[in-house]
Known about the structure:
Layout: H1 15-27, H2 30-37, H3 41-55, E1 60-63, E2 66-69, H4 71-96, E3 102-107, H5 109-126, E4 131-136, H6 143-146, E5 150-152, H7 178-183, H8 207-213
Parallel strand pairs: 3-4, 3-5
Antiparallel strand pairs: 1-2
Helix pairs in contact: 1-2, 1-3, 1-4, 2-3
Amino acid sequence: MPQSIPNKTLPVPSLRNVQAFIEVADSGSINLAAENLNVTASAVSHQIASLENYLGKKLFSRSSKGVQLTAIGARYLKEVSGALNIIGQATNQVIHDIHQDYLRIHSAPSFGLLWLMPRLDRFRQRWPELKISLSCSYESIQFSRDNIDIDIRHGLSQWPTLMVKTIKNERMLPYSSAAYLEKHPLNAVNDLLSCDLIHSDSTLINWNNWLSWHKVRGWNKTLFSPSTARI
Protein backbone atom coordinates (compact mmCIF):
# COMPACT_ATOMS: atom_id res chain seq x y z
CA MET A 1 0.00 0.00 0.00
CA PRO A 2 1.30 3.49 -0.77
CA GLN A 3 2.36 5.45 2.26
CA SER A 4 0.26 8.49 3.11
CA ILE A 5 1.94 11.85 2.92
CA PRO A 6 2.29 13.33 6.41
CA ASN A 7 0.22 16.44 7.08
CA LYS A 8 2.69 19.27 7.38
CA THR A 9 1.54 22.06 9.65
CA LEU A 10 1.95 25.55 8.23
CA PRO A 11 3.97 27.98 10.36
CA VAL A 12 1.69 30.08 12.57
CA PRO A 13 3.15 32.94 14.65
CA SER A 14 1.83 34.12 18.00
CA LEU A 15 -1.59 35.73 17.54
CA ARG A 16 -0.69 38.35 20.16
CA ASN A 17 2.31 39.34 18.07
CA VAL A 18 0.17 39.51 14.92
CA GLN A 19 -2.42 41.62 16.75
CA ALA A 20 0.31 44.02 17.90
CA PHE A 21 1.62 44.21 14.32
CA ILE A 22 -1.83 45.12 12.96
CA GLU A 23 -2.39 47.77 15.65
CA VAL A 24 0.97 49.43 14.94
CA ALA A 25 0.29 49.34 11.19
CA ASP A 26 -3.18 50.88 11.64
CA SER A 27 -2.11 53.61 14.07
CA GLY A 28 1.37 54.27 12.68
CA SER A 29 2.65 54.50 16.23
CA ILE A 30 3.91 52.01 18.81
CA ASN A 31 2.65 54.22 21.64
CA LEU A 32 -0.88 54.47 20.19
CA ALA A 33 -0.93 50.74 19.51
CA ALA A 34 0.10 50.08 23.11
CA GLU A 35 -2.70 52.34 24.35
CA ASN A 36 -5.27 50.54 22.18
CA LEU A 37 -4.05 47.13 23.36
CA ASN A 38 -3.83 48.28 26.99
CA VAL A 39 -0.19 47.22 27.31
CA THR A 40 3.12 49.06 27.53
CA ALA A 41 4.97 50.41 24.51
CA SER A 42 7.91 48.20 25.49
CA ALA A 43 5.68 45.12 25.28
CA VAL A 44 4.48 46.09 21.80
CA SER A 45 8.06 46.69 20.62
CA HIS A 46 9.03 43.26 21.95
CA GLN A 47 6.08 41.62 20.17
CA ILE A 48 6.98 43.28 16.86
CA ALA A 49 10.64 42.25 17.22
CA SER A 50 9.57 38.70 18.07
CA LEU A 51 7.34 38.52 14.97
CA GLU A 52 10.10 39.90 12.74
CA ASN A 53 12.54 37.33 14.15
CA TYR A 54 10.00 34.56 13.53
CA LEU A 55 9.48 35.65 9.91
CA GLY A 56 13.09 36.56 9.27
CA LYS A 57 11.91 39.78 7.63
CA LYS A 58 11.64 43.44 8.60
CA LEU A 59 8.01 44.54 8.73
CA PHE A 60 8.62 48.17 9.68
CA SER A 61 11.21 50.81 8.92
CA ARG A 62 11.94 52.94 11.96
CA SER A 63 12.96 56.59 12.12
CA SER A 64 12.69 59.60 14.42
CA LYS A 65 9.25 60.30 12.87
CA GLY A 66 7.87 56.88 13.82
CA VAL A 67 7.37 53.58 12.02
CA GLN A 68 6.34 52.79 8.46
CA LEU A 69 5.47 49.50 6.82
CA THR A 70 8.05 47.98 4.52
CA ALA A 71 6.88 46.49 1.22
CA ILE A 72 6.89 43.04 2.82
CA GLY A 73 5.08 44.42 5.87
CA ALA A 74 2.32 45.94 3.72
CA ARG A 75 1.82 42.64 1.91
CA TYR A 76 1.78 40.68 5.16
CA LEU A 77 -0.71 43.13 6.70
CA LYS A 78 -3.14 42.64 3.83
CA GLU A 79 -3.05 38.87 4.27
CA VAL A 80 -3.13 38.46 8.05
CA SER A 81 -5.61 41.21 8.97
CA GLY A 82 -8.47 39.47 7.19
CA ALA A 83 -7.55 36.13 8.75
CA LEU A 84 -7.42 37.63 12.25
CA ASN A 85 -10.84 39.25 11.75
CA ILE A 86 -12.27 35.87 10.75
CA ILE A 87 -10.80 34.24 13.86
CA GLY A 88 -12.14 37.04 16.06
CA GLN A 89 -15.64 36.87 14.58
CA ALA A 90 -15.78 33.07 14.80
CA THR A 91 -14.59 33.14 18.42
CA ASN A 92 -17.07 35.86 19.33
CA GLN A 93 -19.93 33.92 17.74
CA VAL A 94 -19.09 30.84 19.80
CA ILE A 95 -18.72 32.79 23.06
CA HIS A 96 -21.98 34.70 22.64
CA ASP A 97 -23.80 32.02 20.64
CA ILE A 98 -24.32 34.46 17.78
CA HIS A 99 -26.07 33.09 14.71
CA GLN A 100 -25.30 34.17 11.17
CA ASP A 101 -28.77 35.72 10.80
CA TYR A 102 -27.92 38.63 13.14
CA LEU A 103 -26.55 41.84 11.58
CA ARG A 104 -24.90 44.46 13.81
CA ILE A 105 -24.44 47.92 12.28
CA HIS A 106 -22.69 50.99 13.67
CA SER A 107 -22.79 54.52 12.27
CA ALA A 108 -22.60 58.17 13.24
CA PRO A 109 -25.86 59.38 14.89
CA SER A 110 -26.81 61.82 12.11
CA PHE A 111 -26.34 59.25 9.35
CA GLY A 112 -28.00 56.44 11.28
CA LEU A 113 -31.08 58.43 12.27
CA LEU A 114 -31.61 60.56 9.16
CA TRP A 115 -30.47 58.28 6.32
CA LEU A 116 -30.30 54.67 7.51
CA MET A 117 -33.35 54.36 9.76
CA PRO A 118 -35.92 55.33 7.08
CA ARG A 119 -34.49 52.60 4.82
CA LEU A 120 -34.36 49.76 7.35
CA ASP A 121 -38.02 48.81 6.96
CA ARG A 122 -37.60 48.19 3.24
CA PHE A 123 -34.43 46.18 3.97
CA ARG A 124 -36.25 44.03 6.56
CA GLN A 125 -39.08 43.35 4.13
CA ARG A 126 -36.54 41.99 1.67
CA TRP A 127 -34.57 40.04 4.29
CA PRO A 128 -37.13 39.15 7.02
CA GLU A 129 -34.93 36.41 8.51
CA LEU A 130 -32.24 38.92 9.52
CA LYS A 131 -32.27 40.53 12.95
CA ILE A 132 -30.76 44.02 12.89
CA SER A 133 -28.99 45.83 15.71
CA LEU A 134 -28.12 49.49 15.04
CA SER A 135 -25.85 51.46 17.36
CA CYS A 136 -24.94 55.11 16.78
CA SER A 137 -22.00 57.05 18.19
CA TYR A 138 -19.04 59.17 17.14
CA GLU A 139 -16.57 56.72 18.71
CA SER A 140 -13.94 54.90 16.69
CA ILE A 141 -14.92 51.24 16.94
CA GLN A 142 -13.05 47.98 16.40
CA PHE A 143 -14.94 45.10 14.84
CA SER A 144 -13.77 42.25 17.06
CA ARG A 145 -13.77 44.28 20.28
CA ASP A 146 -17.14 46.00 19.77
CA ASN A 147 -19.00 43.08 18.21
CA ILE A 148 -19.86 44.92 14.97
CA ASP A 149 -20.40 43.49 11.47
CA ILE A 150 -20.69 46.77 9.52
CA ASP A 151 -19.34 50.20 10.42
CA ILE A 152 -20.56 53.11 8.29
CA ARG A 153 -17.85 55.76 8.37
CA HIS A 154 -17.39 59.22 6.92
CA GLY A 155 -13.95 59.80 5.49
CA LEU A 156 -11.40 59.01 2.84
CA SER A 157 -10.87 55.31 2.18
CA GLN A 158 -7.69 54.82 4.22
CA TRP A 159 -8.42 51.58 6.08
CA PRO A 160 -6.15 48.96 4.43
CA THR A 161 -7.17 46.16 6.81
CA LEU A 162 -10.91 46.47 6.08
CA MET A 163 -13.17 45.69 3.15
CA VAL A 164 -14.51 49.11 2.11
CA LYS A 165 -17.52 49.88 -0.09
CA THR A 166 -18.60 53.43 -0.93
CA ILE A 167 -22.26 54.23 -0.22
CA LYS A 168 -22.30 57.79 -1.48
CA ASN A 169 -19.82 60.50 -2.41
CA GLU A 170 -20.16 64.04 -1.10
CA ARG A 171 -20.02 67.30 -3.02
CA MET A 172 -18.05 69.99 -1.23
CA LEU A 173 -19.19 73.50 -2.17
CA PRO A 174 -18.33 76.94 -0.76
CA TYR A 175 -21.25 78.87 0.74
CA SER A 176 -21.74 82.53 1.54
CA SER A 177 -24.44 84.80 2.87
CA ALA A 178 -26.29 86.83 0.25
CA ALA A 179 -25.13 90.07 1.88
CA TYR A 180 -21.45 89.10 1.72
CA LEU A 181 -21.77 87.87 -1.86
CA GLU A 182 -23.35 91.15 -2.90
CA LYS A 183 -20.28 93.04 -1.64
CA HIS A 184 -17.81 90.45 -2.95
CA PRO A 185 -19.16 89.05 -6.24
CA LEU A 186 -17.57 85.83 -7.49
CA ASN A 187 -17.11 85.10 -11.19
CA ALA A 188 -14.48 82.36 -10.97
CA VAL A 189 -13.03 79.97 -8.40
CA ASN A 190 -9.86 82.07 -8.15
CA ASP A 191 -11.95 84.97 -6.80
CA LEU A 192 -12.20 83.07 -3.51
CA LEU A 193 -8.61 84.05 -2.75
CA SER A 194 -9.70 87.64 -2.14
CA CYS A 195 -12.49 86.57 0.23
CA ASP A 196 -12.53 85.93 3.97
CA LEU A 197 -12.51 82.13 4.17
CA ILE A 198 -13.62 80.37 7.35
CA HIS A 199 -11.19 77.66 8.42
CA SER A 200 -12.12 74.66 10.56
CA ASP A 201 -9.74 72.11 12.07
CA SER A 202 -12.51 69.54 12.55
CA THR A 203 -13.64 69.10 8.94
CA LEU A 204 -12.36 66.25 6.80
CA ILE A 205 -11.80 68.47 3.76
CA ASN A 206 -10.18 71.88 4.24
CA TRP A 207 -9.52 74.80 1.92
CA ASN A 208 -6.08 73.46 1.01
CA ASN A 209 -7.65 70.27 -0.33
CA TRP A 210 -10.53 72.00 -2.07
CA LEU A 211 -8.42 74.63 -3.85
CA SER A 212 -5.88 72.01 -4.93
CA TRP A 213 -8.60 69.81 -6.43
CA HIS A 214 -9.94 72.78 -8.40
CA LYS A 215 -6.42 73.69 -9.58
CA VAL A 216 -6.52 77.20 -8.15
CA ARG A 217 -3.21 78.94 -8.73
CA GLY A 218 -1.58 81.60 -6.65
CA TRP A 219 -2.72 80.41 -3.24
CA ASN A 220 -0.36 79.89 -0.34
CA LYS A 221 -0.58 76.53 1.45
CA THR A 222 0.32 78.17 4.76
CA LEU A 223 -2.48 80.71 4.37
CA PHE A 224 -5.06 78.36 5.84
CA SER A 225 -3.11 76.94 8.76
CA PRO A 226 -4.94 77.16 12.13
CA SER A 227 -2.70 80.00 13.32
CA THR A 228 -3.04 82.18 10.19
CA ALA A 229 -6.51 81.40 8.88
CA ARG A 230 -8.63 84.41 8.03
CA ILE A 231 -12.09 84.25 9.58
